[in-house]
Request: fold
Amino acid sequence: MRDCDLENEFIKFISYGKHRAGNTISSYRSDLEQFVKFLSCDEIAEAEKLEDIFVSGQSVNQAENQRESLLIGADAEKIRVFMDFLEKSNYSQASIRRKFATLICFYNFLTSQHWINDNPTIGITPPQVQKPKPKILTEEQIWQILHLPNLDNWIGARDRAMLELLCCTGIRISELIKLDINDVDLTNLRLKITSSGRKKRTLDLTGTAAQTINYYLKLMQREIGFDIENPQNPLFVNRFGKRLDARSTDRRIEKYISLAGLDRSVTPYDFRHTFAQTLLRQGASIERLHQLLGFGSNSAAQLYVESLKTI
Reply:
């Protein structure tokens, strides 16, 4: 089987069998295509020749027509050389770990489908990533950020509503932008969340957040004619009425963090850290954190709690 066919079979498997998020699937495909280009180099140890492969416009599919599958033939040594090449090419440790995780998942798939007998990634140790310590925002800092958006227009009202939700629920940016209008119950103060893997949970809304969302929706309807009566419409949209994406949302949140004069190392994810730390100070259990923050398991929640204790 050709490498492109193996890639497609793998992508189908993780798309329908594992319910991976769209960004994750794109990363898997990109990582595999990069590895195939790496393997297609005649002399794999010569990094200077590898650079020509990555900058050239040669199609991976064209090269595959002239050879057997390189992915199936790859062994542990070739994977180690690939990891070394990424490190020498100044990829971050986080990127290298992600690419290695892709290879682990891919070769587990090949093994499960009996295309290979042994997973060549077994025994290879990826680089260790030094994670930055979570930042916890003070009540004063949160108040300052929340009151920066201009509520005289619907864009500012939208940004205020997004900030309110991040602060009062601890949801991820990826969950925030997936929200539809029918996910918000402004009467009963409830919020339905769909996380990666299509897992669902329901959270409480504060009265202030509900009022801000209601104000934003009515102002948006009046200013741009957006149909807020259609429950399937996205809750947070851009100026063209289309759902916001993660990158533009991150930029909007980072803008207000900067305007508030906070340290440049503060990120949108620190709203989630602050929410979790508040819960812990109020005596919340690991199980409660698991439920509210949408962790995959109690053990994942436990690790997260341990990281917060280092602050």
